[in-house]
Amino acid sequence: MEQEFEKMKEKAPDNFRLDFAVSREQKNEKGEKMYIQTRMAQYAEELWELLKKDNTYVYMCGLKGMEKGIDDIMVSLAARDGIDWIEYKRQLKKAEQWNVEVY
């Protein structure tokens, strides 16, 4: 799967962002393990602006516990625009724009 994403990034570098958060291999700026919610927090406002467009697709994969951290970030950003994140996330999922695989 990673190779497929790398190819997409090569084909459309201005329209595709590929990022990883591997807790056992990476550290954040505080020297702590890098989790997806930590990585997302680094560019959360940019992501929120992109999520308001109908041509943005997000794919995330990781441990089940990551979803709460992601929701915590997105709830506050959506609230600034008067949007209920949980309902908005449902709409994004229905449109296949928000894809999270957890295990």
Sum up the structure in keywords.
globular; 103 residues; mainly alpha; 10% strand
Q: Your description of this structure?
A:
- With 103 residues, the chain is mainly α.
- Helices cover 49% and strands 10% of the residues.
- The chain has five helices and two strands, in the order H-H-H-E-H-H-E.
- The protein has a two-stranded parallel ribbon with strand order 1-2.
- Helix 2 runs parallel beside helix 4.
- The radius of gyration is 14 Å and the shape is globular.
- The two termini are 16 Å apart.
> For the report, how would you describe the main beta sheet?
2 strands, parallel
Strand content: 5-15%
What order do the helices and strands follow? HHHEHHE
Main-sheet strand order equals 1-2
What is the helical fraction, as a range of percent? Answer: 40-55%
Quaternary class: single chain
If you compute it from the alpha carbons, what radius of gyration comes out, rounded to the nearest whole angstrom?
14 Å
Mean pLDDT over all positions: 85
- Please report the distance between the alpha carbons of the first and last residues: 16 Å
